[in-house]
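User: I'll paste a sequence; please echo it back and then give the predicted structure.

Assistant: Echoing your sequence first, then the prediction.
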Amino acid sequence: MNLFYGSVELRHLCCNVRKIEPLQRALKGLKVWICGLRREQSVTRKDMRLVEWDANNNLVKLNPLINWTEAETVNYVKQHHVPYNKLHDKGFPSIGCQPCTRAVEPGEDIRSGRWWWENPEHRECGLHRR
């Protein structure tokens, strides 16, 4: 049941079933995918651009928040009453599948609760491959 803890490759197999395949079905036939990625979220996102070509899904990927900080994002959500997941208020700055997501302690990296047993450079599921 928890085979994904065994290796990055096994975890990617799980992510493929839970995330990649469903997203590919949802994006089928679309021309643009608008994402909430931000550069400061992780080392794997630092080189992402505002507009990119997503060859994996054969569409344009737009990242309008790419240069926003966490503080700017939180302030905007509060100021404009944007609905958000209440788990953010409970120490989950990055939310994914239940077995692969944990709350983070104050001062920890915002993505440290995602795949915490892996090195930071591997903490992506494959949705945002380049």
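Residues 15 and 21 are 9 Å apart (CA to CA). The first strand starts at residue 32 and ends at 34.
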